[in-house]
């Protein structure tokens, strides 16, 4: 995601349960980007360019 990334891109999606972000060339996850996804149970980030994930980057309620 480039400089035009909307930091609240997931706002309003509080009922979303599964999110696939595969093959998006992501190299960075902004802190708190998933904070509005309170029902999220599954997240796939396969085939991106992420090299580091810090504690708290991912929602605690993932299965």
UniProtKB/TrEMBL annotation:
InterPro entries: Leu-rich_rpt, Leu-rich_rpt_typical-subtyp, LRR_dom_sf. The keyword Transmembrane does not apply. Gene3D superfamilies: Ribonuclease Inhibitor. SMART domains: LRR_TYP. SUPFAM superfamilies: L domain-like. It holds the Pfam family LRR_8. Transmembrane segments: none annotated. Keywords: Leucine-rich repeat, Repeat, Signal. This is TLR-5 mRNA. It comes from Sus scrofa. The lineage of its organism: Eukaryota, Metazoa, Chordata, Craniata, Vertebrata.
């Amino acid at each position: 995601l480039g400089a035009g990334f909307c930091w609240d891109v997931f706002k309003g999606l509080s009922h979303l349960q599964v999110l696939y972000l595969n093959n998006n060339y992501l190299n960075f996850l902004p802190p708190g980007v998933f904070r509005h996804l309170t029902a999220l149970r599954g997240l796939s980030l396969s085939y991106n360019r992420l090299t580091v994930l810090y504690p708290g980057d991912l929602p605690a309620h993932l299965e």
